[in-house]
Structures are given as C-alpha cells and as structure tokens.
Amino acid sequence: MMEYDQLEAAGNPIIPRTAPFHGERFEAFKALATTSKAHGSLIIGQVSHPGRQCESRIQPDPVSASDVQLQGNVMGMQFNKPHLASPRKSNASRRLRPLRRIPAPRRLRRYGGSLVNRSRLILEIAPAIRSHPNIPASFILGIKINSVEFQARGFDPAECKALCASLESHRFDFVELAAAPFFLDFAETIVPALSQTKTYITGGFKTVGAMVRALDTVDGVGLARPVCQEPRLCADILAGKVQGAIKQRLDDDDFGLTNVAAGTQIRMVGRDQEPIDLSQVGMEEAFRKDMGDWTSRMAHDTGHVQFWVCGCGEDSAESVWGGVLVLEKKREE
Fold first, then answer.
1. Helix or strand run (H / E) with residue 32
2. How many helical (H) and strand (E) elements, i.e. helices and strands, does the chain have?
3. Residue 99 in contact with residue 67, Cβ under 8 Å?
4. What span, in angstroms and rounded, lies between the C-alpha atoms of 168 and 175?
5. How many other CB atoms are found less than 10 A from the CB of residue 86?
6. Are 28 and 67 in contact (CB under 8 A)?
7. CA–CA distance, 152 with 154 (Å, rounded to integer)
8. Which tens digit of pLDDT belongs to each residue from 69-108?
9. How many other CB atoms sit within 10 Å of the CB of residue 36?
10. Among residues 183, 153, 179, which one has the least CA distance to residue 68?
11. Rounded Cα distance, 171 and 127, in Å
12. CA separation (Å) from 260 to 144, 253, 312?
C-alpha cells in the first residue's frame, strides 16, 4: 500500500510515496525479497491502493476512482462513501479496476464511457513507468483483469481483445486474467491478438489435468488458495508427486471464509510453522471456532486498538495440530 491511512486491511505492508530507498523499512523489504528469491523464484511486487475498500475505522473519508459506496458489513467492517479522486490523484493511484466498470456518470468524464476513455488511465500510467530514469528496460510490467470487468456494463469479449492489443502496444509484459474458468473462453479470443504480451489465467485450478488443458490456450496458470494450504504444491506438481491440490473442507464459494483461512495459513508459514491442514475435521472445527472469536473481537473493537489478525493456529488450532489426528488427505482428482 502507498499510505498509512489508505489500507485494504490492518497489517498491510506500506511503502509511502515519500519513503527513501534506504533505512529500516527499505532493508526489511530487501530482506523479504532476498528470502523470497532464495530458491530461484521470480517475485513480482504489486503496488495497490484500496479505493472505496478502505475500512471506515482506518479511513472515514476514502478516496476512489468513483464515488460509489461499498455497501454492507463484512466481518465487522463497514465502508464510508468515497469522494471522487482528482485526475492528479487518479494518476498517482494504482486502483484502476473501478474505472473500467463503474458507469460513466459516476467516474471522471475523461475516463468514462468509451473503451478508449475507460482504458485511458492504464495507458497513461504505462509510459510514465517505462520512461522513468531509475527503471531499467528489463523492468516487468503487468496488469490483472478480473472477471468482474465482464459483468453488466463492463467489457465484452471484443472490447477485451482490443484492450489487450492496446496493452501490448504499450509494452505490457503480461496480462493476468483472474477468476477462471470464466476467462478460459475469453482467452481463446484474446490470445491470438497478442504476439509479445504473455497471458496467464488464475482462479479455480485444483487439478494438474485442468492446468495442462489451460496451457493449450494461455502461457501459464496461477494458483492462490491451494498454495496457501500447500506451499510446496508447485514443486510437487513439477516433480510428478501429486496430480492435484488437497481438497479442503471449506466451501470454495465462500470468499470471506477461504480468504481468512488463506491469510491464516500464510501467517503460520511466516512463523516457520506448517499451515493448518483444513482437509482434516478437527482442524476445520478449530479454525471455525477461532475465526468466530476473532470476528466478534473485530466487530466490537470500536476504538480500533487491536491488531486484526485471526488467532487461528495459536490456541485451539495449534492444540489440534500438535495432537494425534492422523486423517488421510483427500486430493482433488
């Protein structure tokens, strides 16, 4: 994230725009990058701005690409109506997706309406990045397009094809199409229009067979939730050890629940622990209990004094983890 008071959630890593390229913060991120690449991985950072998804207790007056309020109560969190960003602020922000899907009257007029206008901000930012004197020619520039962009009032397949062609002409190295398998059909239309820009598809992949079939169309597939449960999954797949991800007991369609579960698993790995195995009944029960307690604390933390990280794995989940549960893991076939 780019600002202390513009966060998607408490605990987000922050690099303010005024932060120097030295000192404690810089050294900490440098150590993170070094460790991430220790075994040969290529790590691509994502700079982000929460826009309207900044929780009201963090930011009572959020700024976004549109003034459309995010409605509802999400695990104790509420979101205030955002004010519309100025063109200067919009060009400083990386929260670009709302410009692609919010109806024109609710967006900056220069960036609403036609496909040319809706993609304008993206195509203005790219040359600014490429021309920066401190950014080498080898710098990787990519963009993620979510399936929500193709819902009502979003892009149609022909527009997506034209957009991706424009992205290639502006030297984007890759386009990530998120929320498969919805996008696999679109990819068959998009990919033939690209000769340099690579395409990746992410979301919903659990079996090696499905991944391999997707590679008939795209250049690569992305995994998220499965590797939070199994950090070694990709290596195991490439070594021919497994044919699919462990089947977790949680409902894949429950975004909030699986999001917290994945965050909990990542936190455990960060503490040099094996992630909680949510294919096991006891582990799932312990996780749900801890999540219920955590959600209640979040809802009642009106002074925003607690650090909102789910305690799963610290109490009951860890007591189960250290116990005698030995259940066979069921993998996706």
1. helix 24-36
2. 13, 6
3. no
4. 9
5. 11
6. no
7. 5
8. 888 877 667 899 998 877 655 544 444 443 444 444 444 5
9. 12
10. 153
11. 8
12. 22, 13, 9
